[in-house]
Amino acid sequence: MLNSTIEIKIKQRLNKLDSQDYDNIECWQIVEAFNKAQVEWARRQLHGINILKEGDEGSTRRKDDLQVLLNTQSLTVTDKEYYYFANLPENYMQWKRVDVYAKQECCEKRRMTVYLAQEGDLNVLLRDKAKQPNFEWGETFATLIGNTTHIYTNNEFEIQSANLVYYRQPIKIQIQGCIDPYTSVQSTQNVECEFKDDITEVLIDETVSIIAGDIESVNQFARGSQNAERNN
User: Looking at the predicted structure, is the pLDDT value of residue 187 above 70?
Assistant: First the structure.
């Protein structure tokens, strides 16, 4: 959907298409609110806060809606004796899985099954024979800490490569000629919404709700919130 169409739809639902009063909506307000709506919508779908309590892949619709945010990136891993660490991507939002290939001197490399564990359980997991890293069984675990992931080996094997599959942050829209609210620099190009038109319609309702709340427009706030949640 074109940014010009998004602007018109938002102003229409705020009843500001022909308004000449102090409630005129600036383009940077639309950009900021729409980008905020994208993040809030994505987090809500990933967590599953809706009537059916569906998580990120809890239904065909969720798989369909969120697949655009799934991304794969090769990780640069660094050996730290009993674990390897790698920095998370800058656009990281939520973990999906990590694919790891490991090797021992006696054997060819093999793909490991990696479970995401809690950092607080680290010492227990490393001590537990059934849960500690095991090359023979092809299993290990990883934790998240300080915008990095730690993939544990317990000095049992070496990690040859690692690829992270994750949900990234939605791409922020930009409107050409508008002051970017994040950089205070005028946008030189249009950056369109990456979501399908049906999702963009939901995001427009989310945006209307955010702006209506900012300008204390109670009716538009209630309508936008209800429409956005009803169509999740």
Answer: yes
Dihedral angle, C-alpha 36, 40, 43, 49, nearest 10 °: 180
Distance from C-alpha of 131 to C-alpha of 48, rounded to nearest angstrom: 29
Between CA 54 and CA 62 the distance in angstroms is 8
Q: What's the pLDDT band for 22 if we cut at 50, 70, 90?
A: very low
Average pLDDT, the chain: 85
Pull the structure tokens for residue 205: 């309702």
CA distance 79 to 157: 11
Tokens encoding 33: 């609110």
- Tens digit of pLDDT for each residue in 105-127? 877 888 999 999 999 988 898 88
What global pTM score does this model have?
Answer: 0.84
Model pLDDT for residues 79-105, shown as the tens digit of each residue: 888 899 999 999 999 999 999 999 988
- Residue (of 170, 167, 171) closest to 97 by Cα position: 167
Q: What is the CA radius of gyration of the chain?
A: 23
Beta bridge partners of 179: 186
